[in-house]
């Protein structure tokens, strides 16, 4: 194991993992769907050690897969063909919050929950929030352009990144974490790394924008007969300046969550569609939300949180969907987006195609309705998984949507990239990849499908 010895000289022998039983934990993703094999796992402590690791791997011609919290859902962070796994978990340094700029520098291994707590101590917050906040890391959030629960108000990860520090495949460093709000000196290299899924460089740190920390929240779950009614409600609620989240889920998912978490019914009777809305502000926005909800049409029932415990419960009905689904089995997971005005049509077509191609399957939909972003989960699809994937991604594309709204392409969707990216765009992708990583050593199975 000559490479293992060289890497041990860079990071210390304790941080080069070769035991098959240990390495196996880095070779399977969170869903349990994507498995691979790793040559070894190396755990550098800082940027300079990352650079040393990449220089050694480059000299040996060894492909590398960067890995953060391993919470990805498209197989983009696990080795598929014996690559070296470069774990960034130890890059967990957090700089002081710069209140003058409203920014902070964070290592790639910092978890989302740690970042949010750090910002809160300075009276600020981080805009991105996702259910896997305790394990998802800054590097992974940047690499996948994560979205989550508050995109409606603050945008995706791309909008939170002021600068990125990264190491090229040959060990050279790019990025300076200056965080300047104005800099017109050429190409936006940091922007190129957001959403690059570890294919261009290894992200070691990011300079991140922070947002105000709101201590007052108003949270409600609204019941509807149809997705079309829920969309009309979101449209009517958008003018609320405090509106932060608008999350949709359906009765099938609610029943799974209730059974999994042993929760009481949300309402006295079940309804087809549920919309969780939340407003956040420095003063209590409850009256504003209640007044706006009172003016909505099509609302069948309403549950308003009047205390923090009830607010947490309302969020649990939505956030526990993924774990409740996984408790039943390993689903086919698709993360797609369509223009919000077409969300109802998309939902209807997905239900129809699942009923046609896999009648015994269970379809569970949930997601971020304000962005038209659906998480499509299909349990017990059997041999119909590939045809379902093809059909659903094609439907999303036909509606002017995307085959991946926030999870990335990974290996799961690389075969369908042509549905929403033209040949010219894919050629540019390949040219950019070659410019950054001419030997093709970084995450070679991801995005391009090679």
Structural notes for this entry:
It is built from 15 helices and 17 strands. The chain is an alpha+beta fold and 450 residues long. The chain has 4 domains: 2-87, Uridine Diphospho-n-acetylenolpyruvylglucosamine Reductase, domain 2 (2-Layer Sandwich), CATH 3.30.43.10; 103-212, Uridine Diphospho-n-acetylenolpyruvylglucosamine Reductase, domain 3 (2-Layer Sandwich), CATH 3.30.465.10; 216-322, Alpha-Beta Plaits (2-Layer Sandwich), CATH 3.30.70.2190; 329-409, 2-Layer Sandwich (Alpha-Beta Plaits). A hairpin with a 4-residue loop joins strand 16 and strand 17 (373-379). Helix 9 (251-261) crosses helix 12. The chain is globular. The two termini are 26 Å apart. The mean pLDDT is 94.
Give the % helix.
Answer: 25-40%
Number of helices: 15
Class from secondary-structure proportions: alpha+beta
- Beta fraction: 15-25%
Proper CATH architecture of the largest domain: 2-Layer Sandwich
Radius of gyration: 22 Å
Oligomer: single chain
Could you give a short account of the major beta sheet? 7 strands, antiparallel
Strand order of the largest sheet: 14-11-13-12-16-17-15
Total domain modules: 4
Any chance you could write out the topology, listing elements then pairs?
Layout: H1 2-11, E1 16-17, H2 20-23, E2 38-42, H3 47-60, E3 64-67, E4 83-87, E5 103-107, H4 112-120, E6 124-125, H5 138-144, H6 151-154, E7 161-167, E8 173-174, H7 189-193, E9 202-209, E10 211-212, E11 216-224, H8 227-237, E12 243-250, H9 251-261, E13 273-281, H10 286-294, E14 299-304, H11 308-319, H12 321-328, E15 332-337, H13 343-357, E16 362-368, E17 373-379, H14 385-398, H15 423-436
Parallel strand pairs: 2-4, 3-4
Antiparallel strand pairs: 1-2, 5-9, 6-10, 7-8, 7-9, 11-13, 11-14, 12-13, 12-16, 15-17, 16-17
């Amino acid at each position: 194991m000559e490479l293992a010895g060289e890497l041990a000289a860079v990071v210390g022998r304790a941080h080069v993992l070769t035991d098959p039983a240990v390495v196996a934990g880095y070779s399977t993703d969170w869903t349990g769907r994507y498995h691979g094999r790793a040559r070894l796992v190396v755990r550098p402590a800082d940027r300079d050690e990352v650079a040393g690791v990449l220089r050694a791997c480059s000299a040996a011609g060894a492909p590398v897969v960067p890995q953060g919290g391993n919470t990805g859902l498209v197989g983009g962070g696990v080795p598929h063909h014996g690559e070296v796994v470069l774990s960034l978990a130890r890059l967990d340094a957090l700089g002081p919050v710069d209140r003058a700029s409203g920014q902070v520098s964070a290592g790639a291994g910092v978890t989302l929950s740690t970042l949010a707590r750090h910002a809160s101590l300075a009276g600020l917050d981080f805009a991105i929030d996702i259910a896997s906040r305790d394990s998802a890391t800054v590097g992974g959030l940047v690499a996948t352009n994560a979205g989550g629960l508050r995109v409606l108000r603050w945008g995706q990860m791309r909008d939170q990144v002021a600068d990125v520090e990264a190491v090229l495949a040959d060990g050279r460093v790019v990025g300076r974490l200056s965080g300047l709000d104005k800099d017109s000196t050429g190409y936006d290299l940091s922007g190129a790394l957001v959403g690059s899924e570890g294919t261009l460089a290894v992200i070691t740190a990011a300079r991140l924008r922070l947002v105000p920390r709101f201590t007052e929240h108003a949270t409600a779950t609204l019941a509807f007969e149809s997705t079309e009614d829920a969309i009309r409600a979101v449209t009517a609620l958008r003018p609320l300046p405090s509106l932060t989240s608008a999350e949709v889920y359906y009765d099938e998912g609610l029943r799974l969550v209730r059974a999994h978490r042993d929760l009481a019914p949300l309402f006295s009777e079940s309804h087809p569609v549920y919309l969780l809305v939340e407003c956040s502000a420095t003063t209590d926005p409850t009256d504003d939300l209640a007044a706006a909800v009172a003016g909505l049409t099509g609302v069948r029932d309403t549950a308003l949180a009047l205390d923090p415990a009830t607010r947490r419960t309302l969020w649990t009905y939505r956030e526990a969907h993924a774990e409740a689904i996984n408790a039943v089995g390993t689903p086919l997971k698709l993360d797609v987006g369509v223009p919000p005005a077409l969300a109802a049509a998309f939902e209807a077509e997905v239900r129809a195609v699942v009923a046609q191609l896999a009648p015994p399957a269970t379809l569970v939909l949930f997601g971020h309705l304000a962005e038209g972003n659906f998480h499509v989960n299909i349990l017990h699809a059997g041999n119909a998984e590939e045809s379902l994937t093809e059909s659903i991604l094609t439907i999303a594309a036909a509606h002017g949507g995307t085959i991946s709204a926030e999870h990335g392409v990974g290996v799961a969707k690389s075969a369908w990239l042509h549905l929403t990216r033209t040949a010219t765009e894919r050629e540019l992708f390949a040219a950019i990849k070659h410019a950054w990583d001419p030997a093709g050593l970084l995450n070679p199975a991801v995005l391009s499908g090679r």
